[in-house]
Amino acid sequence: MATAGTGPDRGHRDRGLIDVAERCEGETRTQLHRLSTRMQQAAPQVLIVAD
Hints:
- By secondary structure, the chain is mostly helical.
- It contains 2 helices and no strands.
- The longest helix is centred in the middle third of the chain and has 36 residues, at 15-50.
């Protein structure tokens, strides 16, 4: 027995969501890269301030 969100018709019902996720993927990757870089830059500063 298939539960909600599983089964052969799932892709059809979720197509709109999949389209949005695919369109946003590049921007999201860029934002995550910028955030990661900023965290790496800020980490040494946090250690200095904490002392």
